[in-house]
Amino acid sequence: MEYSNLRRQIICMKKSLFDQGYLDEQFNQLEELQDESSPNFVEEVVVLFFNDSSRLLTNIEQTLEKYPQDFYQLDSLVHQLKGSGTSIGAIRMKNECSVFKAHCNDKSLEGSLQKMKREHATLKKKLETYFQLMRQAGPRERAVNSRK
Questions:
Q1: If pLDDT is split at 50, 70 and 90, which confidence band does 1 have?
Q2: How far apart are CA 49 and CA 142, in angstroms?
Q3: Start-to-end Cα distance in the chain
């Protein structure tokens, strides 16, 4: 009974992440790469994403603080962040990066940076909860869930 309830929670949470626009089909494709030989593959990739994206956000913030601002450097950093987000299916994060890039000539970059940081923090919290449920369910759930 416990396992069934946990499985339902995982399915509902994943559906919610898609319905709310946090994730797209790329996340499902990533899960399809996970198997018994690498049962934590998706979580490991997502952890790498958050480590790398945190560094990129810090670099973006530092670049914004410099005067004159190096828009070429900003564009490069945001492009990297957008690509990383796209690779795990973080569609809202990708979209915020696109908005930031579109505003690179505006003076509202600080507001765009704060939106990217909020999206990043929210996604991180939601995915940490998702993976925590997956770990509680164990390998059996990972194999079942990755096929959905």
A1: very low
A2: 20
A3: 21
